[in-house]
Protein backbone atom coordinates (compact mmCIF):
# COMPACT_ATOMS: atom_id res chain seq x y z
CA UNK A 1 0.00 0.00 0.00
CA UNK A 2 1.38 3.38 -0.99
CA UNK A 3 0.64 6.45 1.06
CA UNK A 4 0.75 9.90 -0.45
CA UNK A 5 1.36 12.72 1.96
CA UNK A 6 0.04 15.96 0.56
CA UNK A 7 0.99 19.37 1.85
CA UNK A 8 -2.04 20.92 3.55
CA UNK A 9 -3.24 23.86 1.50
CA UNK A 10 -4.06 27.07 3.29
CA UNK A 11 -7.35 28.56 2.21
CA UNK A 12 -6.11 32.16 2.07
CA UNK A 13 -9.70 33.39 1.64
CA UNK A 14 -10.59 32.02 5.09
CA UNK A 15 -7.69 33.73 6.92
CA UNK A 16 -8.61 36.68 9.15
CA UNK A 17 -7.85 40.29 8.21
CA UNK A 18 -7.82 43.26 10.55
CA UNK A 19 -10.65 45.70 9.93
CA UNK A 20 -9.76 49.36 10.47
CA UNK A 21 -11.59 52.66 10.80
CA UNK A 22 -11.07 55.80 8.70
CA UNK A 23 -7.92 56.62 10.71
CA UNK A 24 -6.39 53.13 10.38
CA UNK A 25 -7.22 52.01 13.94
CA UNK A 26 -8.11 48.35 14.42
CA UNK A 27 -11.85 47.82 14.95
CA UNK A 28 -12.32 44.08 14.43
CA UNK A 29 -11.65 41.19 12.09
CA UNK A 30 -13.30 39.11 9.40
CA UNK A 31 -12.22 36.51 6.82
CA UNK A 32 -10.40 37.70 3.66
CA UNK A 33 -13.35 36.60 1.51
CA UNK A 34 -15.81 38.74 3.49
CA UNK A 35 -13.55 41.82 3.44
CA UNK A 36 -13.37 41.62 -0.37
CA UNK A 37 -17.08 41.04 -1.03
CA UNK A 38 -18.81 44.14 -2.46
CA UNK A 39 -18.97 46.84 -1.29
CA UNK A 40 -15.78 45.88 0.57
CA UNK A 41 -14.75 46.39 4.19
CA UNK A 42 -11.82 48.66 5.03
CA UNK A 43 -8.96 46.47 6.26
CA UNK A 44 -5.21 46.53 6.81
CA UNK A 45 -2.96 45.38 3.96
CA UNK A 46 0.61 45.81 2.81
CA UNK A 47 2.35 46.26 -0.53
CA UNK A 48 6.06 45.44 -0.83
CA UNK A 49 8.22 46.99 -3.55
CA UNK A 50 11.82 45.83 -3.84
CA UNK A 51 14.56 47.85 -5.52
CA UNK A 52 17.89 46.58 -6.87
CA UNK A 53 21.25 48.40 -6.85
CA UNK A 54 20.46 49.91 -10.30
CA UNK A 55 17.25 51.50 -8.93
CA UNK A 56 14.91 49.13 -10.76
CA UNK A 57 11.78 47.79 -9.07
CA UNK A 58 10.63 44.17 -9.03
CA UNK A 59 7.11 43.60 -10.35
CA UNK A 60 5.08 40.42 -10.39
CA UNK A 61 2.28 39.39 -12.68
CA UNK A 62 -0.40 37.95 -10.42
CA UNK A 63 -1.25 34.30 -11.03
CA UNK A 64 -4.35 33.39 -13.03
CA UNK A 65 -5.90 31.73 -9.97
CA UNK A 66 -5.85 34.91 -7.84
CA UNK A 67 -9.35 35.86 -6.67
CA UNK A 68 -8.73 39.57 -7.23
CA UNK A 69 -7.07 41.18 -10.26
CA UNK A 70 -5.62 37.95 -11.74
CA UNK A 71 -2.89 38.26 -14.40
CA UNK A 72 -2.40 41.97 -13.79
CA UNK A 73 1.04 43.37 -13.02
CA UNK A 74 1.55 44.50 -9.43
CA UNK A 75 4.28 45.46 -6.99
CA UNK A 76 6.68 42.79 -5.70
CA UNK A 77 4.11 41.23 -3.36
CA UNK A 78 0.99 42.09 -1.37
CA UNK A 79 -0.88 40.64 1.54
CA UNK A 80 -2.72 41.13 4.80
CA UNK A 81 -1.28 40.92 8.30
CA UNK A 82 -3.30 38.86 10.73
CA UNK A 83 -5.10 40.92 13.37
CA UNK A 84 -2.43 42.34 15.71
CA UNK A 85 0.47 41.01 13.60
CA UNK A 86 3.29 43.47 12.87
CA UNK A 87 2.98 44.58 9.23
CA UNK A 88 6.68 44.21 8.35
CA UNK A 89 6.76 40.68 9.80
CA UNK A 90 3.74 39.65 7.72
CA UNK A 91 5.32 41.23 4.63
CA UNK A 92 8.55 39.26 5.14
CA UNK A 93 6.56 36.00 5.30
CA UNK A 94 4.62 36.77 2.09
CA UNK A 95 7.80 37.80 0.26
CA UNK A 96 9.32 34.41 1.09
CA UNK A 97 6.10 32.52 0.22
CA UNK A 98 5.43 34.26 -3.11
CA UNK A 99 8.95 34.84 -4.44
CA UNK A 100 11.34 32.88 -2.23
CA UNK A 101 13.13 36.10 -1.23
CA UNK A 102 14.34 37.61 2.03
CA UNK A 103 15.71 41.09 2.71
CA UNK A 104 15.38 43.88 5.24
CA UNK A 105 12.02 45.60 4.85
CA UNK A 106 11.06 49.13 5.92
CA UNK A 107 7.60 50.68 6.08
CA UNK A 108 7.66 54.05 4.29
CA UNK A 109 4.05 55.18 4.09
CA UNK A 110 0.39 54.31 4.01
CA UNK A 111 -2.53 55.13 1.76
CA UNK A 112 -6.14 54.11 1.40
CA UNK A 113 -7.83 52.95 -1.77
CA UNK A 114 -11.03 51.33 -3.01
CA UNK A 115 -11.15 49.38 -6.29
CA UNK A 116 -13.60 46.93 -7.83
CA UNK A 117 -12.34 44.05 -9.97
CA UNK A 118 -14.91 43.92 -12.77
CA UNK A 119 -13.62 40.49 -13.87
CA UNK A 120 -14.27 38.79 -10.52
CA UNK A 121 -16.75 41.15 -8.83
CA UNK A 122 -14.52 41.35 -5.76
CA UNK A 123 -13.45 44.60 -4.10
CA UNK A 124 -10.26 45.93 -2.57
CA UNK A 125 -10.89 48.48 0.22
CA UNK A 126 -7.57 48.71 1.94
CA UNK A 127 -5.52 50.72 4.38
CA UNK A 128 -2.30 49.84 2.58
CA UNK A 129 1.11 50.01 4.27
CA UNK A 130 3.90 50.51 1.71
CA UNK A 131 7.04 48.53 2.46
CA UNK A 132 10.35 48.76 0.59
CA UNK A 133 13.55 46.78 0.55
CA UNK A 134 16.79 46.44 -1.38
CA UNK A 135 17.46 43.12 -3.04
CA UNK A 136 21.23 42.89 -3.34
CA UNK A 137 21.47 39.10 -3.55
CA UNK A 138 19.28 36.22 -4.64
CA UNK A 139 16.98 35.54 -7.54
CA UNK A 140 13.20 35.35 -7.33
CA UNK A 141 11.86 31.80 -7.13
CA UNK A 142 8.15 32.47 -7.70
CA UNK A 143 5.43 30.15 -6.45
CA UNK A 144 3.34 29.52 -9.61
CA UNK A 145 0.15 29.51 -7.52
CA UNK A 146 0.91 33.14 -6.64
CA UNK A 147 3.02 34.59 -9.45
CA UNK A 148 2.67 34.10 -13.24
CA UNK A 149 5.81 36.08 -14.15
CA UNK A 150 8.15 38.76 -12.83
CA UNK A 151 10.27 41.55 -14.26
CA UNK A 152 12.62 44.32 -13.20
CA UNK A 153 11.85 47.82 -14.52
CA UNK A 154 13.05 51.37 -13.94
CA UNK A 155 10.45 53.50 -12.10
CA UNK A 156 10.24 56.05 -14.93
CA UNK A 157 9.59 53.26 -17.46
CA UNK A 158 6.88 51.88 -15.18
CA UNK A 159 5.22 55.31 -14.92
CA UNK A 160 5.12 55.51 -18.72
CA UNK A 161 3.67 51.98 -18.98
CA UNK A 162 1.03 52.77 -16.36
CA UNK A 163 -0.02 55.86 -18.33
CA UNK A 164 -0.06 54.02 -21.67
CA UNK A 165 -1.82 50.82 -20.58
CA UNK A 166 -3.36 51.15 -17.09
CA UNK A 167 -5.62 48.12 -17.61
CA UNK A 168 -2.58 45.80 -17.45
CA UNK A 169 -1.72 46.91 -13.91
CA UNK A 170 -3.40 46.66 -10.51
CA UNK A 171 -5.22 49.81 -9.39
CA UNK A 172 -2.96 50.28 -6.36
CA UNK A 173 0.40 50.03 -8.16
CA UNK A 174 0.74 53.71 -9.12
CA UNK A 175 0.28 54.87 -5.50
CA UNK A 176 2.66 52.21 -4.18
CA UNK A 177 5.28 53.27 -6.75
CA UNK A 178 5.07 56.97 -5.86
CA UNK A 179 5.37 56.41 -2.09
CA UNK A 180 8.10 53.77 -2.44
CA UNK A 181 10.16 55.65 -5.03
CA UNK A 182 10.09 58.89 -3.02
CA UNK A 183 11.27 57.04 0.09
CA UNK A 184 13.93 55.15 -1.88
CA UNK A 185 15.32 58.40 -3.33
CA UNK A 186 15.22 60.09 0.09
CA UNK A 187 17.09 57.13 1.58
CA UNK A 188 19.73 57.18 -1.14
CA UNK A 189 20.22 60.95 -0.74
CA UNK A 190 20.57 60.52 3.01
CA UNK A 191 23.28 57.88 2.59
CA UNK A 192 25.50 60.07 0.36
From TrEMBL:
EC number: 5.3.3.2
Catalytic reactions of this protein: isopentenyl diphosphate = dimethylallyl diphosphate
GO cellular component labels: cytoplasm
Nudix hydrolase domain residues: 41-175
InterPro entries cross-referenced by the UniProt entry: Idi_bact (IPR056375), IsopentenylPP_isomerase_typ1 (IPR011876), NUDIX_hydrolase-like_dom_sf (IPR015797), NUDIX_hydrolase_dom (IPR000086)
Primary localization: cytoplasm
Keywords attached to this entry: Cytoplasm, Isomerase, Isoprene biosynthesis, Magnesium, Manganese, Metal-binding
Cofactor: Mg(2+); Mn(2+)
SUPFAM superfamilies: Nudix (SSF55811)
PROSITE patterns in the record: NUDIX (PS51462)
Ligand binding (Mg(2+)): 98
Gene Ontology MF terms in the entry: isopentenyl-diphosphate delta-isomerase activity; metal ion binding
Subcellular location, record wording: Cytoplasm
Catalytic residues of the enzyme: 78, 126
Entry keyword Magnesium: yes
Presence of keyword Isomerase: yes
Record-level GO BP terms: dimethylallyl diphosphate biosynthetic process; isopentenyl diphosphate biosynthetic process
Cofactor note: Binds 1 Mg(2+) ion per subunit. The magnesium ion binds only when substrate is bound.
Record NCBIfam families: IPP_isom_1, PRK03759.1
Family that this chain belongs to: Belongs to the IPP isomerase type 1 family.
UniProt name for this protein: Isopentenyl-diphosphate Delta-isomerase
Gene (UniProt): idi
